Amino acid sequence: MLRYFRFNWLPFLRQPDEPLVRFFSHSSDRLPIRPLVFGSSIGLFLMLGSFSIPALYLLLSLVITLYLSMMTAHKVDRARRDALLPLLFITPVRRRDLLTSLWSGCVWQLWRSQMMWMYWSFHALVIVAGMVYLLLSAELSSSDALWLLLVGTVLMRFQPVSALFCAGMVGLWCGLAVPDSLLALGAAGLSALCGWLVWVSVVLLVALNFADLAAWQWTCLLLLPLLLSLLAGYLAFRLAERRAHP
Questions:
Q1: Rounded to 5, what percent of the chain is helix, strand, coil?
Q2: What is the helix (H) or strand (E) element at residue 42, kind and residue range?
Q3: Contact yes or no for 41/59 (Cβ under 8 A)
Q4: Is residue 170 a contact partner of residue 192, using CB atoms and an 8 Å limit?
Q5: 30 near 113, Cβ under 8 Å?
Q6: Helix H or strand E segment including 37
Q7: Chain-centre distance for alpha carbon 70
Q8: Each residue of 199-223: pLDDT tens digit?
Q9: Is-contact 72 175, C-beta < 8 A?
Q10: Nearest residue to 174 via CA among 159, 193, 160
Q11: Is the torsion defined by CA of 189, 195, 201, 203 positive or negative?
């Protein structure tokens, strides 16, 4: 089923059948987060009932962002401690290809998990439900309604991608820039948490003040975190390229 959902347009993503990508994606380095997600999901359903769907979506988005960022930093640190990373850097393979292969391996490893499918499903469900609610409750003109559908479609398609790109690249840079294992994991997790908080804060701001905002205002507010994530991910990747050395 994976071949039907390959997002080849994700920046710097390499295909899972490449040797280096296959090596990093099948690595045994995993963080034990499935029991946490399963237990938290049951707790949210028991406490919130029908409101557990958006809460579960927020939980999944946070966990996946933290997971990818910390897992990428962990793989970089593990490869450095095993003396694998210096050996890879002295091969004829370009540093950019090595770094993108490591990050792509983390993305494909995460993509094969059931948690990722749940996240994409809840992401689409929450956005569609939000658009339907705004179309039925808010007094929107036809042009604003069409603009809302366009922005919602863009967010449905690209927001998770920008989050994966930013989280993975920040984790890659933290793993290379911070020599201590725990500090690298902490820096990667904290950076991913800050990005997630920015996204959630913007969504809540728009939801609470939607009636008072013009179409161009809520459009800019909703698309700004997406663009900032792509920019931050690219900057983190360029910094990681400079830190990469034998």
A1: 80, 0, 20
A2: helix 34-48
A3: yes
A4: yes
A5: no
A6: helix 34-48
A7: 12
A8: 888 888 887 887 777 878 888 888 8
A9: yes
A10: 193
A11: negative
